[in-house]
Write a structure and sequence with these properties.
By secondary structure, the chain is of the alpha+beta class. It contains four helices and seven strands. The chain has a single domain, classed as Aminopeptidase, CATH 3.40.630.30. Strand 4, helix 3 and strand 5 form a beta-alpha-beta unit.
C-alpha cells in the first residue's frame, strides 16, 4: 500500500463542495453525477454525503442513505492520484459509524464484479457478497456484486 495521506479530513458535504465533487465524478465514472444531482441530495433527509478533503482540495467522497434502519451506499469515489492511501477506508469507517449510531441493521452496496480492488477493500471492512445484480451497470454493461455489512450486537 502507498503512504497514507496525513492531512485528510472528512466533512459533511455542503453546497461549496458540489463543484469539486462533480469534477471527481467526471474523473472516476463513465456516467457521472451532475451538480443538480448533488444539490438534490442536500435536500434529502435520508442522504448522508461526506467529502474527503486535503487542504482546500476535495479528493474523494461517499454518499449513503439511511432508510427505515437500513443503510445503502450510493457512491464511493477517490481521485486516482489519491487511491491506495487509506482515504476510501476513512470514508467507509465514517459511514459505518453513522449507520451504527443511527441504529441501522446493515450497510449495503453494489460494486462492479471486475473491480477487484474495491471488492477487496469492502471485504477488509467486513462486507460480504450477498448476491449479484445482472447488467446493473452501463457504459460498459456489467454485473454488480451486492455486498452487505450486517451490524450485530457484537459489532455495534
Amino acid at each position: 500500500m502507498s503512504e497514507r495521506v496525513k492531512d485528510i479530513y472528512i466533512e459533511k458535504m455542503s453546497i461549496e463542495h458540489i463543484p469539486l465533487l462533480v469534477e471527481i465524478e467526471k474523473e472516476c465514472f463513465s456516467k457521472p453525477w451532475t451538480e443538480e444531482g448533488f444539490l438534490a441530495e442536500l435536500k434529502n433527509d435520508t442522504a448522508n454525503f461526506y467529502t474527503a478533503m486535503s487542504g482546500e482540495k476535495a479528493v474523494g467522497y461517499m454518499g449513503f442513505y439511511i432508510i427505515c434502519g437500513e443503510g445503502y451506499v450510493a457512491n464511493v469515489a477517490v481521485l486516482p492520484s489519491y487511491r491506495r492511501k487509506g482515504i476510501a477506508g476513512r470514508l467507509i469507517e465514517n459511514a459505518v459509524k453513522i449507520c451504527k449510531n443511527s441504529g441501522a441493521e446493515f450497510l449495503s452496496l453494489e460494486v462492479r464484479v471486475s473491480n477487484s480492488a474495491a471488492v477487496s477493500l469492502y471485504e477488509k471492512y467486513g462486507f460480504e457478497k450477498a448476491g449479484e445484480r445482472k447488467n446493473f451497470y452501463s457504459a460498459p454493461v456489467e454485473n454488480a456484486y451486492i455486498m452487505t455489512l450486517k451490524f450485530t450486537e457484537d459489532n455495534r
